[in-house]
């Protein structure tokens, strides 16, 4: 059947321009408007990266690349639509539209490699809510160690590490990062830290880096809430490395993110870079996946495998 499989490619979303920031922030806060101070702070961050995030454009490019890769494998079978968590089109609406159009199967794929019930699990639940039982929903839960993803990170990291070591004449520390989550979620047994660690180990093994000596894990972009979030925070790690005086610089491999957006362009390229400079450290970060053809092709392969995987036999 032509177009029998609908793929809902899910991402966080971003405001289209400054006029949408307050509504976007309110949605993130589950309908609670931000204080004027918080809104001004977020707006200033967008101004610092040029006024608007490139995330919407990048996410559309990722959708296009995934569609192209699926068409190359099985022309006409797959239709890829975007679904956003905090911007239009919302995940639930995209999934509902796919079901209404008669798709026999819905595949949910999140543009984040590491499974957490708080993130990927929530996206997939939103997708199922939108479908409303009209068709089966198959989720791609994790692609933390997808070989094409690991290779993309490893090749870029190796080149940047060699360049920084040459420029500084000293060793450098690699920080693998992802978005922090509330500690209560991890304490309840969520696998998110293990997911990040699996990526870090795969990349480090690919280019022969030793944990503790060459790399460590840090967390970034924690929410501004009273409850504790998982750490150590990247800014504190940078401060500690500078104080120790053992390294010439830090390279951040932000493997928890697959697009250039606020948490990369501001939290790392501006805030973390400034902290490194103050600590007397050189600073660099690996490139984001964005629309990399090899990675997007690998994700297309995961979608096909998920759909074509034999269903388990019925229980007796």
Q: Short description, anyone?
A:
This protein has twelve helices and eight strands. By secondary structure, it is of the alpha/beta class. The strands form two sheets. Strands 2-1-3-4 form a four-stranded parallel sheet, sandwiched between helices.
Describe the structure.
There is one protein chain. It is built from twelve helices and eight strands. Helix content is 47%, strand content 15%. With 316 residues, it is an alpha/beta fold.
Write down the oligomeric state.
single chain
Q: What class, by secondary structure content?
A: alpha/beta
What is the tally of helical segments? 12
Overall, the morphology is globular
Largest sheet: 4 strands, parallel
- The number of distinct β-strands equals 8
Taken as a percent bin, the fraction of beta residues is 5-15%
**Alpha-carbon distance between the two ends:** 31 Å
- Give the spatial strand order of the biggest sheet: 2-1-3-4
Sequence stretches where pLDDT stays below 50 over 5 or more residues = 311-316
**Gyration radius from CA atoms, angstroms:** 20 Å
Average pLDDT number: 96
Q: Please provide the ordered H/E string of secondary-structure elements.
A: EHHHEHEHEHEHHEHEHHEH
Helical residues, percent: 40-55%
Question: Secondary-structure blueprint of this entry?
Answer:
Layout: E1 5-11, H1 21-28, H2 36-48, H3 55-73, E2 78-84, H4 91-100, E3 105-110, H5 120-131, E4 137-140, H6 147-168, E5 172-179, H7 183-187, H8 192-206, E6 215-220, H9 234-244, E7 249-253, H10 262-265, H11 267-278, E8 282-285, H12 293-308
Parallel strand pairs: 1-2, 1-3, 3-4, 5-6, 5-7, 7-8
Helix pairs in contact: 3-12, 4-5, 6-8, 9-11
């Amino acid at each position: 059947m032509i177009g029998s499989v609908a793929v809902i490619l899910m991402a966080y979303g971003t405001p289209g321009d400054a006029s949408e920031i307050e509504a976007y922030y309110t949605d993130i806060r589950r309908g609670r408007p931000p204080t004027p101070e918080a809104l001004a702070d977020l707006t200033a961050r967008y101004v610092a990266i040029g006024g608007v995030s490139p995330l919407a454009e990048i996410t559309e490019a990722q959708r296009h690349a995934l569609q192209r890769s699926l068409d190359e494998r099985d022309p006409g079978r797959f239709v890829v639509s975007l679904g956003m968590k905090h911007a239009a089109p919302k995940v639930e609406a995209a999934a509902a539209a796919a079901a209404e159009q008669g798709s026999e199967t819905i595949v949910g794929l999140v543009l984040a490699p590491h499974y957490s019930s708080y993130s990927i699990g929530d996206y997939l639940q939103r997708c199922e809510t939108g479908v409303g039982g009209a068709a089966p929903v198959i989720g791609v839960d994790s692609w933390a160690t997808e070989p094409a993803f690991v290779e993309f990170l490893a090749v870029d990291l190796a080149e940047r590490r060699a360049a920084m070591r040459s420029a500084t004449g000293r060793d450098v520390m690699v920080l693998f990062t992802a978005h922090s989550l509330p500690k209560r979620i991890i304490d309840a047994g969520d696998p998110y830290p293990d997911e990040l660690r699996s990526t870090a180990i795969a990349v480090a093994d690919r280019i022969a880096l030793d944990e503790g000596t060459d790399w460590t894990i840090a967390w970034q972009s924690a929410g501004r809430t009273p409850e504790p979030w998982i750490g150590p925070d990247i800014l504190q790690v940078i401060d500690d490395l500078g104080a120790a005086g053992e390294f010439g610089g830090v390279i951040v491999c932000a493997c928890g993110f697959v697009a250039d957006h606020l948490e990369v362009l501001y939290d790392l390229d501006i805030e973390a870079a400034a902290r490194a400079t103050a600590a007397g450290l050189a600073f660099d970060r690996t490139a984001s996946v964005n629309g990399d053809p090899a990675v997007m092709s690998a994700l297309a392969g995961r979608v096909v495998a998920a759909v074509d995987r034999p269903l388990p036999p019925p229980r007796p």
